[in-house]
Amino acid sequence: MGCDDIAMTMSDAQGATAKTLPDTAARPDAAVPALSIGNVSHSYGPRRALIDVDFEVRPASFSALLGLNGAGKSTLFSLITRLFGIQSGRISIFGHDISREPGEALRLLGVVFQPRTLDLDLSVMQNLLYHAALHGIGRRDARARATDVLAQIELADRAGSKVRDLSGGQMRRVEIARALLHRPRLLLLDEATVGLDVKARADILKHVRKLVSDEGIGVLWATHLFDEVIPTDNLVILHQGKVLARGDVARVLSEAGAQDVNAAFMRLTGALSGSIAP
Amino acid sequence: MSSTALDHRSGGFTLAEYVTCLTGIVWREGLRFLHQRERFVSALVRPLVWLFIFAAGFRQVLGISIIPPYETYILYEVYIAPGLMAMIQLFNGMQSSLSMVYDREMGNMRTLLVSPLPRGYLLFCKLLAGTAVSLLQVYAFLLIAWFWDITPPPIGYLTVVPALILSGLMLGALGMVISSGIKQLENFAGVMNFVIFPMFFASSALYPLWRVQEGSPMLYYVCQWNPFTHSVELIRFALYGKVDWVSLAVVGGCTVVFMAGAIFAYDPSRGLVRRGPAGGET
Questions:
Q1: Which domains does chain A have, with CATH numbers?
Q2: Under 8 Å between Cβ of B224 and B233
Q3: What is the number of structural domains in chain B?
Q4: pLDDT at A223 exceeding the cut of 60
Q5: Is there a contact between B273 and A106 if contact means CB atoms under 8 Å apart?
Q6: Does B18 touch chain A if contact means CB atoms closer than 8 Å?
Q7: B98 to chain A nearest CA, in Å?
């Protein structure tokens, strides 16, 4: 299945959502993939972490990047965010090559990393203002935006609280708010719900899905939790650095001959390792 | 949520965005400094111990002849004051590098590095922020030292500012280069033993170079090649409204070299690429 096929299936899957989108700046870029990963490989010395990874994320779509620990998800995120240099292949965000136009590409990108990246000694508002400054957003505008995003995540009353006084779920919500502060068009979340209770996980997922439907943001959601994937999502299964399947959930299930995502994952990864019969 | 021209326009960055980024990084570094009161206290206590105890003991042993920029005999405390100011900046530079290693391990560093502004500029802002913090520490030290009869000419408090900025940038950039090579926080003890102490002791901070030459010609050459010596001399002359041109050239040159090294080390396609993902990540 090529990238165009994926794009087609993703568009189909999100068709209903796209029709209800407000007339935002997402429209002009609808034809351009929010994220394009083209044959990306990466090695740490002799160990190959990613092997010819190739897929796309469309605007206004929710794509789940499913893989076990060690599959290469965080390495891929580090490449997309330019923390690591690309050894081979190509990554672009809304058509901006991350190597050649990093400023343009990173401007359109919001990221929630796997480890917590908030400054625990600063307040919620101070963390948000710092992030805004890193994107060149002036203080007055930044404060207005911060107030706005904090209201969205229902933490407006905690703006002055020190981050270390928040719960794990609240910290994650602040990180999502921070990632949205510069109004990105593509949002990456790396294992954003790990370590959270069931309710906090559900709240965060609901909020992110709402961003897709209401704001037209493209989302790449890396996880190893199968129950976070729903039928309308797009799915990329990454295992031992390779993409084993991609497309909308129905197509992946059909190709794997499985009834659910869990079974499909086990079948696909088992087929690769030989430990589980295809 | 509406989009604005700022969000998604093409092209480079405006001057206002660069300035906003700089002020934001300096502001955050200042806030962190204020929140870490023990860091401020320890930054002050260290040079004051040298001034009040070490210098008091050695003033009877070490005589200081009249050497530029001084125009008369001076107390040993007066001599070592610029060296202690530079020491504050040396420790601050290394402390900043320690915080970069910590930030990298804890993930905060990513917040900085995924900013769309040029990475070299971000590192420069980080350096400038660290230097601004070191200026606060140095002036707090000078204030206390004033009560200890270390009273440079009033104009010296102003003329020393450029020297402190340049020196702070050089030592901060050195710390940044070192931090790029440290993989774990625990390795920072090695920085103390192999960088801070040798740089401080093999310099003109505690004794004039002519005295070092009398004792050990080899050590004299080491001191002359030590960029920290030139930081000390640059500050010493500036504190008395004068310029040591050789030291200015050395410190300026080293700042450029160390800064280039830091940018190289934090370039994703070079320095960071050698590392794997942080612990616990996949």
A1: 3-108+186-273 (3.40.50.300), 115-183 (1.10.8)
A2: no
A3: 1
A4: yes
A5: no
A6: yes
A7: 16
